[in-house]
Design a protein that fits this description.
26% strand, six-stranded antiparallel sheet, elongated, 876 residues, PPM-type_phosphatase-like_dom, 19 helices, alpha+beta, 31% helix, Bact_Sigma-Reg
Amino acid sequence: MITARAAASFEPVGRSVATARSFVRDTLQGWGFADIVDDAVVLTSELVTNAVVHAGTHAEVLCLRTEDGVRIEVSDRYPEREVPLQQSAVSMGSPDREGGRGLQLCAALATRWGVDYTPTHKNVWFQLNLPERPVGTRTAGPALPADLLPLADGRVRVAVLQVDRKGSISAWNEDAEELFGYPADAVIGKPLTELAAWPHTPGTGTGIAEALQLSRWEGTYGIRGADGRVAQVYASHLRVRDTGGEPSTVCLLVRDHERAVLQTPSRVPAGDQTASSDGQSTDPFEVFIGSPAPDDLDGLLQRTVERARDMLDGDSAFLLLATDDETELEVRASTGLPSARQRFARVPVEAGPGRYGSARMPAVHDDLAAVPGAVPLLAGTGMRSVVTVPLKVEGRLTGSLGVAAEAPGRYSNEEALRLQFAADRIALAVESARLGELERLRRGSLSFLVEASDLLAGTLDRDQTLALMAQMTVPTLATWCAVYTIADQASDPYLSYVLHEDEELIDGIKSLLSKIPPPDPVPTPGARVWTAPGEVAHQAALRSSMRSLGLAGGPTHRVASGIGPTLATASAVGGETVVLPLVARNRVIGMLTLGKPTDEHFRQEILELAEDLSRRAALALDNARLYSERTAISQSLQRSLLPPGLPQIDGVEVEVIYRAAGEGNEVGGDFYDLFPIGNGAYGFAIGDVCGTGPNAAAVTGLARHALRLLAREGLSGPAVLERLNSAILDEGDRSRFLTLLYGELRPQEDGSAELKVVCAGHPLPLRLRQDGTVVAAAEPQPLLGVIEDLELYEETVTLDPGDVLLCVTDGVTERREGTRMLGDDGLADVLTTCTGLTAGAVAARIMRAVERFASDAPSDDMAILAMRVPGIHKEA
């Protein structure tokens, strides 16, 4: 049954692929289908690419919500296609081909998929079903003697929170205030995610936002209290709705050691028995882990350590998973340890000589005080005795499970055998869940990299590229990041950009990093740990604390200046910090630095994803650098082809407006000049070289400088242009034809101005008289750079007081809107409205009229030169 639908159509252009991805992502997230968003985005991206890029047609995307999941249809109008014959084998091609991968992905990721044909359309569809989630089961336990009941504090406090559909806290009881230190008015209206210390990796596990959407959820996480510490809690969530149908989630929270108050009992009590009361055998996995088993890896691991701790009556327990190369173990779950905040910390598999130095063998330590460092994870935790056993699947090490106690000598080989038996029961389930998590992570990583590449390819601005790099990593991959850039091989790394998920901490981190020598620009690929930020921040926080207590030799201050920001910065950068090189074209152009807050670490899969991102970001940053350098060179050359300033001419007003078209202002194009010749005369020119680029720039520079030199030699206008024509033809293959209006201006004693003008293929200059009439001030003559023997002549024009001479390039007259063009007549019509205006006002009015003539940005350079002999002024 279809419960909702959404549709959109996309044009056959490259940017439509990104737009289609956003449409599908927004639609599915709005429907609450976060579990299948990544797969849907990847499949849609491939199918829309096939339609708009390879087939070159419009793509129509239809999303249909069903009770089980979503069906997405992508239609195109590709007229040339092979309709597969019935019962014929379908070949989807090689995965190495550029096209045709869409159907292969459908086959790999979709629950169901297919292709439908009509006379005008081809429709590819796929179905993605939502994963099934078990809900809590109500049970009752037997009556027990008092000495067997679970321990709890004399006053058990149950925090009751209510969270609305947007994830914001709407209710907060007195026990919550007592447990976490926040009054109700300080937290109501805030998102629960601001308080919950919930380790979340994109594409893996269940995040807090997803957990709040489930009908029922139960498990462990942390709440950041008002004192800044994280309190481990056991929580039970229930999704409800009010009489108006508005959903919300009720959350019950207790201290982690009081979990028995809320925890749902196992269907079968844990123990050594493997048979139920009716004599039927029971699955050993369910005996240990309980039923229903958690459906996500994080929940399974957390349940495992809790049951292992209870089984051996320990004070704490921990579980580590092996990396792919089996050289290190990552902390993935713990209970009863402050190291719960050290999630994804890594320890070596082979920690020392002997059987107890390897995680591949069971180990029992009677007293850790006698062998310090034997179990690095327990250093400084107060644990004295520990038993650890390996998790193995088909002889391969997949993890390690340990239980510890505060008293020495608590465990023997008998406990090791019991724990090993339990580890053998759950090893396969853990490995299966881990592989499922990795698969989801890879799918999420693919979607992330596709969108990241699209964003990075969409800009050539260096600063924007730096900002995108940081915004894509925070908070998805890291809590904070810094980007260092290297201008050239002789330059030191420069701190170019800093970002933290909390904007108030950015300045503190930037100040800290500016005082630390940057990391070495090592080109070796991969992430390497950088300890300097955490060490320096810790030392600064220690000094600030000592000064505040008067222990540094100075007076005691009630409130030490700056201690708050210093401690906040130290906490922000106190976790693991890694550096990834940005390598482009075999050169290190910078470093991407990623960091975690105090005691937090990166997981290996996230570092691999960050490495993939750094390679794409490096190339985008280098492209932006090259484009910026090219643009700077182009703009510098463009400025050199224009006069640095205009001379003041007594008795004549002069105004010039020059607008270069196009991003980056390509060199060449239009130019103008106004310069003194001598004896009270001034030369003026406005021209347009055919084309753009270096060859056009060469002709532009030749023309402007040759005009000045030849005019100052006393040559007449025709002689100047004839010699310039010969010089252009001498350029050979680099020559370009040139339209040029050249003239000499000489102010007269009676207040008028005499002009001698030669118009070589250029738009004719227009003369505006005081009575409002507009006439051409010259006759058209051949342009330059085409034929050798030119015979040019000059025309004399006298501008009376109040007259205006307007000279423009063809970018003005050829301004278009559809099939309409401004033209010479349109320019003349605008000029008739400029009677009595100053030269500056005339030029400004012409430019406004040209810009308003069409809605699109100008596609050609434009130059306007207005000269006016002052007369009676009127306001513009």
